[in-house]
Design a protein that fits this description.
CATH superfamily: Survival protein SurE-like phosphatase/nucleotidase
Number of helices: 6
Largest sheet: 9 strands, mixed
Organism: Jannaschia pohangensis
Keywords: Cytoplasm, Hydrolase, Metal-binding, Nucleotide-binding
Distance between the termini: 55 Å
Radius of gyration: 19 Å
GO molecular function: 3'-nucleotidase activity; 5'-nucleotidase activity; exopolyphosphatase activity; metal ion binding; nucleotide binding
CATH topology: Stationary-phase Survival Protein Sure Homolog, Chain: A
Helix content: 25-40%
Order of helices and strands: EHEEEHEHEHEEEEHEH
Strand order of the largest sheet: 3-4-2-1-5-6-7-11-8
CATH architecture: 3-Layer(aba) Sandwich
Shape: globular
Family: Belongs to the SurE nucleotidase family.
Number of strands: 11
Number of domains: 1
Oligomer: single chain
Catalytic activity: a ribonucleoside 5'-phosphate + H2O = a ribonucleoside + phosphate
Length: 264
């Protein structure tokens, strides 16, 4: 198996080392793991691409490259130029912090898996929830390091990957716990915290210029039962199937009823 890995925390991020180990385990003897990651941190960039400017690529080692661009750029670079041959799987992460609830729509980690799906390649985004029970561990990524490879293997071998147009990809979040407290895998929907909106914090520099810091909100607030954050805080690895199609099908039917009688 040939696996392409990337992230949004950057080429030097500790979570990428965890993902490299997971990918080597999954690829197996004779497999290949190619790392194509952002040269600098790209957290919060979502699915953006550097459409109006080129991205410099630097070779950092054997099958290891840094790209001055977004995670989606890295996937495009890997699939279109860098990797020597077809890619069987794209893994993105392991992100430092959760990408559940509202975080999902901002995440560059998710953006990379999304781009893989758009390119017709299986993609899995992986993130490590932080909390009081794991943040001070010698390895805060312990849950993902121990359970990540088994989770990926299960998805690759048994999960649906279909779609005639917008193909599936998966969002995986590991709970904020030591590895031995993880309860298992749970198939859940994307949740809604309600207080998970991004905001701004204004600050005035010594020169009198005004700057805005983008800031998040509390991450431990559970979502509804059967959704990602709720599962994570209860000790489960959340697995959420996703597509790039943003259409709300239920509303579409109602909207047709509203608009069908209009003739311009």
């Amino acid at each position: 198996m040939r696996i392409l890995i990337t992230n949004d925390d950057g080429i030097a991020a500790p979570g990428l080392e965890v993902l490299e180990a997971i990918a080597r385990d999954v690829a197996g003897e004779g497999g290949e793991v190619w790392t194509v990651a952002p040269a600098f941190e790209q957290s919060g960039v979502g699915h953006c691409i550097n459409y109006v400017k080129p991205s410099m690529v630097s070779k950092m080692g054997e099958r290891r490259y840094a790209v001055e661009g977004s995670p989606a750029d890295c996937v495009l670079a890997g699939l279109g130029e860098i990797v020597d041959g077809p890619v069987d799987l794209v893994l993105s992460g392991v992100n430092r912090g959760n990408n559940a609830g509202e975080n999902t729509v901002y995440s560059g980690t998710i953006g990379a898996a999304m781009e893989a799906a758009l390119q017709g390649v299986r993609g899995i985004a992986m993130s490590q929830f932080y909390g009081p029970e794991n943040v001070d561990l010698d390895n805060p990524f312990e849950a993902s390091a121990v359970h990540g490879a088994d989770c990926v293997r299960r998805l690759v071998s048994d999960a649906p990957w279909g779609g005639d147009h917008y193909k599936l990809f998966y969002n995986v979040n590991f709970p904020p716990l030591p590895a031995d407290k993880v309860r298992g895998l749970a198939a859940v929907a994307q949740g809604y915290r309600g207080d998970g909106r991004m905001g701004v914090a204004p600050q005035t520099s010594p020169s009198g210029r005004k700057y805005l810091w983008i800031q998040g909100s509390a991450q431990g607030e559970p979502t509804q039962p059967g959704t990602d954050v709720k599962a994570n805080v209860e000790g489960w690895v959340s697995v959420t199937p996703m597509r790039c199609d943003l259409t709300d099908q239920a509303t579409l039917a109602a909207l047709r009823g509203v608009l069908d009688d209009y003739r311009g």
